[in-house]
Design a protein that fits this description.
This protein is of the alpha+beta class and 339 residues long. The protein folds into 2 domains: 223 residues, H-NOX domain; 103 residues, Homeodomain-like (Arc Repressor Mutant, subunit A, Orthogonal Bundle). Helices cover 54% and strands 10% of the residues. It has 17 helices and 7 strands. The strands form 2 sheets. It has a 5-stranded mixed β-sheet. A two-stranded antiparallel ribbon has the order 1-2. α11 packs across α12 and α11 crosses α14. It is elongated, with a radius of gyration of 25 Å. The two termini are 35 Å apart.
C-alpha cells in the first residue's frame, strides 16, 4: 500500500465548501478525523493523508450521496490547487497548464499521481489514486476529474470545453445518476474500466487561456520548486529523528526538546511536522528503543536491567512489559532464543 503522505489544506477546503453548501455541519467531522478546526484558517499548512481520507469517509457516510465526489468538483477554485493553481492561471495555453500537473501535483497532496501520454491526435491523462479505502477512492477520483474539467473550462473561459471520453474504474452509482456525469462532462463515461483516465483532443491543448503571464509563471514555478524541495526534506524527517534519538539513547537520555534542537526546530514545530507524516515522537522513540534492545540482547552480554537503564526506562518491569508487547516474548526469552 502506498503511504497517504500529506495533503494541502487548500484541497480539504474544497470538500468543506461543498459540505457547507449542502447544509452539513463539518465541525464534528473535522474533530473526528483528528484535525484541529483552526487549521482551516491557515493558507499554506498541510495535514496527514490518513486524516484527510478519514474526513472524506465520514463526509461520504453522513451525506449518503453516491455521487458526492462528482458534486464536490463544482466547488473547485484556483486556490484548491495551492501554488499549482496560480501557475496554471498564468500559462498561455491549456497545453502549458496540463504539462504542469505531473511535476507539481505533490504540492496539492499525495492523493495520487498523474501520467500523460499522447496517442495520435488524442491526449490521455491517467490518474492513479494512492488511497486504499474502497469507499473513499471512487469519490476521490470523481472529485479529481470533475475538478480538472471545471477548472480547465474556467481557465479557457469556455464552458463547452469537453473531453473525448472519461473512463472510471468505479462501478456505476446508478443508471439514473449516470446522467449527472454526462450533464457535467458532456462526453461518454465508461464505468468499470481498467483505469481512471480522461482522453481529450490534442488540438484542445492550443486553447488560449484568459490570464497569460509568462514572467509571473516563472516566478511561481521557482517558488513551487522550493516548496517541493522542502517536502522532500520533510519526507526524510522520521529517519533523521530516529538517528538523533539513537544518539541520545547511547548517552542514556531521551529528550524531545534536545532532538528538536539538534534538527534546528522547536519542539512544537517538530511535533507538527511529525504529525503531518502520520507519526509521533513517542512512536519513533519506541521503534528505536526496540531495535536497540534487540541489538543489545543479540550482540552483548549487558545485563537486562542495564539495557533498560541505557534505553531510558526508569524501571526494568516497564522495559519487560513494552518489549513483550512488541516481540511476543520477554527480553530474557528473546536472548535465549537468539543464542
Amino acid at each position: 500500500m502506498t503511504t497517504p503522505g500529506t495533503v494541502s489544506v487548500a484541497a480539504l477546503r474544497q470538500y468543506v465548501r461543498a459540505a457547507e453548501a449542502s447544509g452539513i455541519d463539518i465541525r464534528p467531522l473535522v474533530t473526528r478525523a483528528g484535525l484541529d478546526p483552526a487549521i482551516l484558517e491557515t493558507d499554506d499548512d498541510r495535514i496527514n493523508g490518513e486524516q484527510f481520507q478519514n474526513f472524506i469517509r465520514q463526509l461520504v457516510d453522513m451525506a449518503n450521496n453516491p455521487i458526492l465526489g462528482l458534486e464536490t468538483g463544482d466547488f473547485v477554485q484556483p486556490g484548491s490547487y495551492s501554488v499549482l493553481g496560480y501557475i496554471t492561471m498564468s500559462c498561455s495555453t491549456l497545453g502549458e497548464a496540463v504539462a504542469r500537473i505531473a511535476p507539481f501535483e505533490k504540492l496539492v497532496g499525495d492523493m495520487g499521481t498523474t501520467r500523460l501520454s499522447v496517442h495520435g491526435d488524442t491526449l490521455k491523462l491517467t490518474w492513479h489514486c494512492n488511497y486504499d479505502d474502497r469507499v473513499v477512492r471512487p469519490h476521490l477520483v470523481d472529485n479529481v476529474f470533475a475538478s480538472w474539467i471545471n477548472y480547465a473550462r474556467w481557465l479557457a473561459d469556455d464552458t463547452t470545453t469537453a473531453p473525448t471520453a472519461v473512463q472510471l474504474r468505479r462501478q456505476s452509482p446508478d443508471p439514473k445518476q449516470e446522467a449527472a456525469y454526462h450533464q457535467r462532462w458532456h462526453c461518454p463515461v465508461v464505468f468499470g474500466a481498467e483505469e481512471d483516465c480522461i482522453t481529450l483532443p490534442k488540438a484542445l491543448l492550443d486553447s488560449r487561456l484568459r490570464q497569460p503571464d509568462p514572467l509571473l509563471r516563472k516566478t511561481l514555478e521557482a517558488h513551487a520548486l522550493t516548496q517541493l524541495a522542502s517536502l522532500e526534506t520533510d519526507s526524510d524527517l522520521t529517519t533523521r529523528v530516529k538517528h538523533c534519538i539513537q544518539k541520545q539513547l547511547n548517552q542514556g537520555i531521551t529528550r524531545q526538546d534536545l532532538v528538536a534542537e539538534d534538527l534546528g526546530l522547536t519542539s512544537r514545530t517538530l511535533q507538527r511536522k511529525l504529525s503531518q507524516e502520520g507519526v509521533s515522537y513517542q512512536r519513533l522513540l519506541d521503534e528505536v528503543r526496540q531495535q536497540m534492545a534487540e541489538d543489545y540482547l543479540r550482540n552483548s552480554d549487558m545485563a537486562i536491567p542495564d539495557i533498560a537503564l541505557r534505553l531510558g526506562y526508569s524501571e526494568t518491569t516497564s522495559f519487560h512489559r513494552k518489549f513483550k508487547v512488541v516481540a511476543g516474548k520477554t527480553p530474557g526469552e528473546f536472548r535465549r532464543g537468539e543464542s
